[in-house]
């Protein structure tokens, strides 16, 4: 969807702006595969400004990366300041012929809305937008501030997205009291889980180097594969820890082994081992880097093979947010709306909450994540309505509790 078409859609939907299904469909129709904005932020900006928000699309750049558009929108002034954080960028749809409906067509079949981003996380963005617009229609401006921090770089390298948008907002005097991230946190049903922290993530590539040669003359070569088993054993066999009261045990998984060698009679010159660790707050990215380096060095000691390790940038640290009051308030809201008491969890992958936690307490709650990143990603329309109701009730409780 082009920017012009997106803006026209926002205008056309003026009479149904608080309908999360229509907002979600408009967002899904924007092919906003990272780092393309695709019209999604333009649509959202128009939707919000027509209801009184001040909204600005901000572009960030950095050498070696794509330019990325982000949206900051707010209404009201002063404390308490509740910000809703999320993203409108999506992962690629993959082979589109495998989809029941085109991934950016936002088709509805029965009770389900299909499309890339339906769950992760255009659906939740639509629900919070609908909830906020309905709240403002009923109450006028809040006793404080409501804002949106929406990035186009969450599914990508996360360099020109939320982290820079937060710094940009701070430079302009914005102070956030609490943040709610709309990632799909529920494993099975709406109301299952609130995220109050996240494990860290560290990825890297170990290269074991030997000497290429003919497989019939191994004495003239040095096969790096002989060191592979020892390195794999060192990385995988010893548990990182047994977990904590807030976090599951840390993990390290090898995700790829490659020599680039297609010949049966050639001993390869090197082999690469890619890995990813998801770690709790017993570790830091730096301590894990040191641990991996030591393990690899010890595994190859005396082998005559050499090694190097390249760690991926932007490792995420584990964190547990100080969000007791806001987590309790959201839990009460979810219980009142669904009858379920959500678990407070730190499981799953990483999210942009890892940046927000440096500015204010942050919690995460969104849709059911079973189809995120899959072919035929889809969301139950009833869940869109229910999540909107939860967000709407939470806004009322929040400003009743913290508002002046």
Using brief descriptors, characterize the structure shown:
404 residues, alpha+beta, 6-stranded mixed sheet, 4-stranded antiparallel sheet, 31% helix, disordered N terminus
Give me a quick take on this structure.
The chain has 404 residues and is an alpha+beta fold. The chain has helices at residues 3-12, 20-28, 40-49, 122-139, 162-171, 225-236, 285-300, 324-338, 353-356, 381-402; strands at 54-60, 68-76, 81-87, 108-109, 112-114, 145-151, 178-181, 193-195, 197-198, 200-209, 213-214, 251-258, 266-267, 270-279, 306-311, 319-320, 343-345, 362-364, 378-380.
Structure description:
With 404 residues, the protein is of the alpha+beta class. Helix content is 31%, strand content 23%. Strand 4 and strand 5 (112-114) form a beta hairpin. The radius of gyration is 24 Å and the shape is elongated.
Secondary-structure element string = HHHEEEEEHEHEEEEEHEEEHEEHEHEEH
Shape: elongated
Please estimate the helix content.
25-40%
**Tally of contiguous helical segments:** 10
């Amino acid at each position: 969807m082009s920017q012009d078409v997106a803006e026209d859609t926002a205008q056309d939907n003026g009479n149904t702006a608080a309908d999360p299904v229509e907002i979600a469909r408009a967002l899904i129709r924007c092919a906003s595969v990272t780092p393309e904005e695709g019209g999604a932020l333009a649509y959202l900006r128009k939707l919000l400004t027509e209801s009184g928000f001040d909204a600005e699309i901000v572009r960030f750049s950095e050498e070696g990366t794509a330019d990325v558009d982000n949206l900051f929108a707010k209404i009201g002034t002063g404390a308490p300041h509740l910000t809703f954080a999320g993203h409108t960028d999506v992962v690629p749809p993959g082979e589109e012929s495998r989809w029941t409906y085109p991934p950016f067509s936002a088709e509805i079949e029965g009770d389900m809305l299909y499309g890339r981003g339906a769950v992760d996380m255009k659906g939740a963005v639509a629900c919070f937008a609908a909830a906020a617009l309905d709240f403002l229609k009923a109450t006028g401006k809040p006793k404080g501030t409501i804002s949106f921090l929406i990035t186009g770089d969450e599914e990508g390298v996360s360099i020109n997205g939320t982290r820079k948008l937060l710094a940009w907002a701070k430079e302009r005097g914005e102070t956030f009291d609490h943040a709610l991230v709309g990632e799909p946190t529920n494993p099975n049903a709406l109301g299952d889980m609130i995220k109050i922290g996240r494990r860290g993530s560290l990825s890297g590539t170990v290269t074991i180097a030997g000497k290429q040669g003919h497989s019939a003359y191994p004495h003239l070569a040095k096969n790096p594969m002989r060191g592979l088993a020892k390195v794999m054993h060192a990385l995988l066999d010893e548990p990182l820890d047994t977990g904590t009261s807030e976090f599951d045990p840390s993990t390290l998984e090898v995700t790829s082994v490659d020599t680039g060698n297609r010949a049966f009679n050639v001993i390869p010159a090197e082999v690469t081992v890619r890995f990813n660790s998801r770690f709790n707050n017993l570790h830091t990215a730096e301590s894990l880097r040191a641990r991996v380096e030591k393990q690899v060095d010890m595994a190859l000691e005396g082998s005559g093979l050499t090694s190097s390790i390249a760690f991926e940038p932007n490792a995420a640290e584990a964190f547990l947010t100080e969000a007791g009051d806001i987590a309790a308030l959201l839990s009460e809201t979810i219980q009142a709306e669904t009858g379920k008491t959500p678990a407070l969890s730190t499981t799953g992958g990483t999210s942009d909450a890892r940046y927000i936690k440096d500015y204010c307490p942050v919690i995460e709650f969104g849709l059911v994540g079973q189809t995120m990143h899959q072919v035929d990603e889809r969301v139950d329309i009833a869940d869109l309505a229910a999540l909107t109701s939860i967000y709407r009730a939470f806004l009322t409780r929040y400003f009743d509790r913290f508002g002046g």
